[in-house]
Amino acid sequence: MQKVYDLFEAMLADESLIAVSVSRPVNKKSSVRKVSVRPIILRGHLHYQFTYHQGQQVKHRNLSRQDSLAELKALVGHSFRQAQVFSQTADYHIIVSAKGKSKILTRPPSRQENMGPTGHNRDKNYIIPANKPCAFLHRLGIMNKQGQVLPSRMAKFKQINRFLEMVDDIVKHLPTDRELQIIDFGSGKSYLTFALFHYLHEQKQLAVRIRGIDLKEDVVHYCNTLAQDLGWSQLSFWAGDIKYYEQTEPVDMMVSLHACDTATDIALAKAVLWRSKVILAAPCCQHELFRQIDNEQMRPLLRHGILKERLAALITDSLRASALEIMGYDVQVLEFVETEHTAKNLLIRAILSPQAKDSSQAAAEYLTFRNAWSVKQPAIETALGHVLQKHLSSQQIQ
Ligand SMILES: C[S@@+](CC[C@H](N)C(=O)[O-])C[C@H]1O[C@@H](n2cnc3c(N)ncnc32)[C@H](O)[C@@H]1O
User: Fold this and answer.
1) How far is CA 11 from CA 47, 72, 86, 110, 209, in A?
2) Which end of the chain is more exposed for a tag (fewer CB within 10 A), N or C?
C-alpha cells in the first residue's frame, strides 16, 4: 500500500488532486457505501471535503491537508477496496485485494476542465491566463510547471489579475516616448510587483524600470535573486525605509499596496512631490485616526470599537483622496478584490490632471470634513507638509 499512500501524499503536496471516489467497503454491512473527496477553500486555506454516503443520507467533513492524508490512508485499503482518483496530471484506478495488495492503473487525465476548489470555472479571461505556464508565477508558488493555479493560491491569482485590470485602465496616461519609471513602496514578497513588470514588459512590450522598496532585507534579497533568475534586469529591489528613499529620475507611477498604517501617507507624499503621473495605493491597517476622531452626533457609532475602527479607516482614506485632489489629481476609490478574500480591499487610484486645477473648493471640502471629525493633523498633512499647507492656509484665512 505504500505506493498508494505516496501517491496521495504527492497529490496533496502539489495540490494536483481534483477528486477521489472511494467505494467497495471491506465490511459488506458498512452503512457508508461510498466516500467522495474534493478540494475546498475555507477562510482562504485549502481543505478537502469528505462526503460519506450512507443510504439516502450524506455527511460532510472538511479536513486540513494533513488530516486528509490520514483519512485517505484510513479509508483506502483498510475500509474500502477501490478508489477512483482524478488529478491534474493523471487518473488512477486503485484496487486493493482481499489480502491487502494494491494495484494502481494509470490513465491520461480526464478532468482537465480546470474547475476551482469551489466548483467555479476558472477559465475567466484573466490578463495572465490560468492555464498557461508562467515562469514568475511558478517561482512564486502560485502555479505549477504546467500552468495550473494551485487551489490554495487562487485568491492571490485573482488579486494579481484584478490589480492588472486596474493597471490596464491607466496605461494610456503613461508616457510612451521613454522608459517608464515605477516605484513600488512596501513591495514585500512582491507578487504584484513581478506581475506588474510581467504585464508591462512582457505582455505590453513597454520599456519599463521598476524598483520595489521594502524594510525587510531578506525579502528584498529574495526578490532581487528571483528578478535576476528571470532575466529581468530592469526590475530591482532596495532595502530600506520608504521615508529615506530618494529618486532623481522623474517617476511615472507610484504603487504602494498594503504598506502599513502611515507608511501609505509617506508613499503618497513622495509621489505627489515627484509629480508622479499615476498613483495606485491600497491602504492597510489605518490606525492613526482611531484615537483622534470625535463628533457629537456620531456618538452611537463611535461608542463601538469595531464600528469606530472601520469608520477611522474610511475617514483616513477620504482625507488621503481629498488631499490628492487638492494636489491636482483626479481620484477614484475602487474595490481592489472582493471582500470575501480580505477586508483590505480598497484601492486609491489617482491620475495627475493634465490641466492645472483650482484647488480652493477641494481644500475647503477637506477642511470642513477634517474639522467635522475633530481631527487635528492627519499623517497625510504631516507627510505633505508645506506643499499641502499653503492650499489649506489660503482657505483658513478667508
Ligand atoms: C502587507 S505587506 C504588502 C506587500 C505587497 N505590497 C502586497 O500588497 O502584497 C507590507 C510591506 O510593507 C513594508 N513596509 C511597511 N512600512 C514600510 C516602510 N516604512 N518602509 C518600507 N517598507 C515598509 C513591510 O515590510 C511589508 O513587507
Assistant:
1) 13, 12, 10, 16, 39
2) C
